[in-house]
Each structure stands twice: as structure tokens, then as C-alpha cells.
Amino acid sequence: MLDVTVIEDPAAAAASLDPIRAQLLAELAAGPASAAMLAGKVGLPRQKVNYHLKALERHGLVELAGERRKGNVTERLMRATAASYVISPLALAAVQPDPDRFRDQLSARWLLALGARLVRDVGTLITGATKARKRLATYALDGEVRFASAADRAAFIQELTAGVGALIRKYDSPDAEGGRDHRIVVAVHPTVKPETSGAAGVAGAAAASGTSGTSGTSEGPETSEAPSVAPSAVPELTD
Fold this sequence. Notes:
There is one protein chain. The chain has 239 residues and is α+β, with helices and mostly antiparallel strands. It has helices at residues 10-17, 19-29, 35-42, 46-58, 108-132, 150-171; strands at 5-7, 62-70, 73-80, 85-87, 138-145, 182-190, 202-210. Strands 5-7-6 form a 3-stranded antiparallel sheet, with helices on one face. Strands 1-4 form a two-stranded parallel sheet. The protein has a two-stranded antiparallel ribbon with strand order 2-3. A hairpin with a 2-residue loop joins strand 2 and strand 3 (73-80). The longest helix is centred in the middle third of the chain and has 25 residues, at 108-132. It is elongated, with a radius of gyration of 22 Å.
């Protein structure tokens, strides 16, 4: 079972969003079960559970884990193909966010569009790498920092932008034969706090996804777009 997988197909996304099927996925993520075992947990007849399981299996969200005899009946034990699922913007391809439509480094909605593109691209890369039976080169950084003031936060953003920009200028080799293009996304946003917590903070995350620029060694779909950072484009952040 995979830890997480991305759903790209619209029909599969619709199947996963059905409340009953979502509940079945959650149950099967905990371990294999038959329709009869699941029926009591979700409060539905076994035949109805079977109907939903077949729909989930058709879309690759569950799979056969084994079979067992129970009296005169052979039960199929099903399991979820992943512990959790993420729906790619490709499932809504006609209306998926386009971060290139506008660029505003202080816009939360632009950050959301970048995040959606990250989910879409990494999901596509995983699919390509899985089909090619190759490893996918990725890196992610996740952390939290508490700023004493909005001025400190603004200074942090300025230094972060300048630092990442300097690294890109140092290592970017657009003319390197056989080089691999990578996208870099750095995000800073207020931490989402539990309802019972009164702590305040700001979380920062960075991720880079890589693809091959040479044929025969691709770990996913090819891309030629190079990352860019413009330190001068970051004005002071305010609350």
C-alpha cells in the first residue's frame, strides 16, 4: 500500500468523493476486509457494499488482497491502494488554477495556485516514474518559525528571496547538455492552528521536483521551464 497517491482521473475523483465510498476507503486503509465485514461498519447491505467496492476497484482505488472461504461462499478481501489520496487539479482540467495567469508573491490565492500546480506536476511525475520503473528525484523542506513582529517577517522574506535567488543564479546552467530542469517552490504562510491552541506562528515549506532533459532516462514528463526568483519583487509584508 502506498502512503499517498494522486487521483488524476475525473471519474475516479468523483468516486472517491462519494461519502459512502470515502468511508469504505478509510476502512480499507486500516486493513483488508470483505463486503460482509464492511457492511456492518457502514450500515449498508452486503450487496450494496459490493456495488461500491466494484466501482472503487474499477478506478484503481481498491484492489484484491486475497480470498477466503466462508461456508459455501468465497469472500474477496479488498484493500485500499493507498493510505490517503490527493485529487489532482487535472481532475478539473478545464478550470484548474494557472499560476502563470498572474504573479503576486504576496497573494494567498497565487500561493494556492502554486500549490495546486505542485500537486498536479508531482502527481504526473510519479505516474510517469512508476510506468518507467524509475526513481523520482524530489526534495521537500518543512518547518515552522515564529516571528516577533511583522517587520521581522518582512526581513525574513527579503533574505529568503535574496538567498534562493543567489543559489539559482549560482547553479542554474540552462545550456548544460543533459542537464535536468527542476522547479523550486518556496512558501511562507501563517500556521493553521488547532481550535484548542492559542499559539501563533508562520510555517515555511520548500519543495523541488525534478525531471530529465535527456531521452531514455526520464523519471517523468519532460519540462523545460526553469525556476525564477526576483528578489526585488518582494515588498514588505504587513499584517
